[in-house]
Amino acid sequence: MSELIAALPMYDWPEVRGEVDAQWTSLRDAFRRKGIDAPEAIVRRNGDLPAVPGGIHDAAGTLIAPDPATLPPDELDFHRLWLHPALLFAQTCWGPMELGLSKHVQVIGQPSYDAYEGGQGELYSSALVMRAGEGPEVRSPADGKALLPLDLIRDRRFTFNSLDSMSGIIALTRDLEAAGESLDIFSSRGESGGHRGSIVAVAEGRADVAAIDCESWALAQRFEPAAGKVVIVGWTARRKGLPYITARTTPEKTIRAMREALAGLAEQPPVQRVG
Description:
Blueprint: E1 5-7, H1 17-33, E2 56-57, E3 63-65, H2 78-83, E4 87-91, H3 94-98, E5 105-109, E6 123-124, E7 126-131, H4 150-153, E8 157-160, H5 166-178, E9 188-191, H6 195-203, E10 209-213, H7 214-223, E11 230-235, E12 239-240, E13 244-247, H8 252-266
Parallel strand pairs: 1-4, 8-9, 8-10
Antiparallel strand pairs: 2-3, 4-13, 5-13, 6-12, 7-10, 7-11
């Protein structure tokens, strides 16, 4: 049994757990064919993370996170997952990476977002959504540049998933700054806890605007009824999507093998999603 761990938490909605498990099965088998001792299943709870007595330390020996065994077992702390010394493979976001995570992990590669409006190869963008009837619906710009309806969103209430989210707030912040504006364009800002929660908040009138990454928006169109009550009124510029990472201690030989496995999977015909 592998002592390593893996996770695919970023798009792991309850309705697609089977699809996410199938995605890991494909990755796991590709890794094993390269001689990597990949774990049988992904982790979804703090309780699934191996204990790290004394807590998690960085390369210099500084404590950077508590022992996962001290956390609520049925929740999943993304940062403890990403920092775990046994991490073989996981998704993260460039927001946390820019805020310090990159010092403690290694990047393996990037997924493709070709299947989603607003995505192109390893690049993705976020849809700016408002309630239906409050603005004209727009398509993703072919050139991948930001499309910001400044007059429409001015003095509105903005909701975002978390402060360290590239897709939910950082990308929009940068696009607004490039346009000579800032988050002060909004009358208020509030944290929803997740892209799905942001969509629901807008649909229910507790907020007016949210930025939703294009893959999460595709999931919402499949499974979140509130998505039917909002429309896309703008887009952030395309940026690198969620990177795949591994622990800072993962050997270079293993990283090369994982990259080769990912490249091989990328060359296979895409699997048609249903539902």
